[in-house]
Amino acid sequence: MKTMTTEEWHTEFFLALTAANATEGEVAEAVADVESFCADSRQSPLEAFGDPRAYVKQLGIGRSTTWRERLGYLIHVPTMLGIFVVFDGVRHLVGGTTASLTWGHLAAAGLLTATTVGFATALFAGRTVVMALVAVVGMTAAILSAVTFDRAIVELAPAVSLVVGALLLVVPAAVGTVQSLRDREQARVAAQRVGRPESDSSDTKLAAWVIVASHWGVVLAAFVFAGVIALVAQLVPAG
Amino acid sequence: MSTEGWPSEWLRGVLELCVLRLLADGPTYGYAIATRLADSGLGEVKGGTLYPLLGRLETAGLVETHWQAGEQGPGRKYFSLTAHGRETFTRRIAQWGAFTTTTNTLLARTPSTEEATP
Fold first, then answer.
1. What is the CATH number of the domain that holds B95?
2. φ/ψ (deg, to 5) at A213
3. Residue B115 domain-assigned?
4. Residue B3 and residue B24: Cα distance in Å, rounded?
5. How confident is the model at residue B51, as a pLDDT?
6. Residue B28: helix, strand or coil by DSSP?
7. Which of B30, B46, B59 has the CB atom closest to A36's CB atom?
8. How far is the C-alpha of B73 from the C-alpha of A196, rounded, in Å?
9. B56, A60: Cβ pair inside 8 Å?
10. Among B54, B42, B61, B59, which Cα is nearest to B78's?
11. Among the listed residues B46, B51, B52, the one whose alpha carbon sits nearest the alpha carbon of residue B29
């Protein structure tokens, strides 16, 4: 049997439960069962429950991803598109030319979304090689698409492009934050059900910050990079 | 006789009935079930074997659960028999009695007392 620290076991267990699409309640209950049994028996999770992925299969919990959940992934397309539109807007604002949304931008946004979803699925399933492959192939295809298909769908004034890009970034981030906070509340209720009174403490507050950072980090990074591009373009004279 | 090393297929076959028997005494939690099984001479039953079995019993409606909050960390999940579980247990224990009688009768016939097959 391979060795594993308790933390590693729990991480692998959580990833396997997520890959099985277990509900917040199922996750909370399964984790509490393990913690409770290990605390009583003074055994490590590996000793008491064996391989975490095999144990999740034995538990038989989880369900298939619904079509509604799959469609939910599409929320990432506007975010990816927003990054391209903001960058393009800044570039043309500095250059004093007209910005454009191209078919390449649209294709790259779709490919980057598919790459992100594929990467996360492989991560939860513990398939490191597939994860790396998805990242390399997806990113390469996205960059090639953005560069190759440069035919404009619509031409925009740089300022309009920036506003559209900002909306494309901000709206999904706001929707995602609300959804994640709802999920977190469900997790808190599920944790309380399994007798975890401490769940509404610093851990949960930290999780709220992680949620905010995970949704707004991309937005912030896009604007910071766009600002840097604009600044560099101002400082370095053309030609 | 040593309780170690019961053939695993025997344990797999009988574990569910033994767990139902322990639950017939009243609500109890995972580790207590494992300890009582070990004390009864069945050997160590790992959490990884016990919880999936308890989960199957719950899904089948034979067992219900409730949580008791822990002062620190997770609470304890208590398992108890439902009315359906109690009926099933009573039926299976009768079946088990008939099954072991049949098996014991067969096994008691040592080769020397066995009638020669034509």
1. 1.10.10.10
2. -65, -40
3. no
4. 24
5. 96
6. strand
7. B30
8. 6
9. yes
10. B54
11. B51
- Using CB atoms, pick whichever of B48, B55, B74 lies closest to residue A36: B74
CA pseudo-torsion sign A176, A180, A183, A189? negative
Q: Is residue B54 part of a domain?
A: yes
Inform me whether the C-beta atom of residue A32 falls under 8 Å from chain B C-beta atoms: yes
For residue range A2-16, list pLDDT tens digits in order.
788 999 999 999 989
Q: Do B52 and A60 touch (CB under 8 A)?
A: yes
Q: Write the CA distances from B69 to A38, A69, B30, B60, integer angstroms.
A: 16, 33, 15, 26
- pLDDT, one tens digit per residue, over B14-66 is 999 999 999 999 999 999 999 999 999 998 999 999 999 999 999 999 999 99
Question: What is the rounded average pLDDT for all residues in chain A?
Answer: 84
Tens of pLDDT, residue by residue over A112-143, are 889 988 988 888 888 889 999 999 999 999 88
- Residue (of A23, A18, A15, A45) closest to A33 by Cα position: A45
pTM for the structure as a whole: 0.69
The residue of chain B nearest to residue A47, with distances taken between CA atoms, is B46
**Domain for residue B112, yes or no?**
no
CA separation for the pair A176, A159 (Å, rounded)? 26
Structural domain includes residue B113: no
CB contact under 8 Å between A31 and B34, yes or no, is no
Is B76's pLDDT higher than 80? yes
First to last CA, chain B: 37
Interface of A with B in 56-75 (CB under 8 A): 58-61
How many structural domains are present in chain B?
Answer: 1
Contact B74 A37 (CB under 8 A): no
Percent of residues in chain A assigned helix, strand, coil, to nearest 5: 80, 5, 15
B70 and A43 within 8 Å at the Cβ level: the answer is: no
What is the ipTM score, two decimals?
0.85
Asked if pLDDT for residue A55 goes beyond 70, the answer is yes
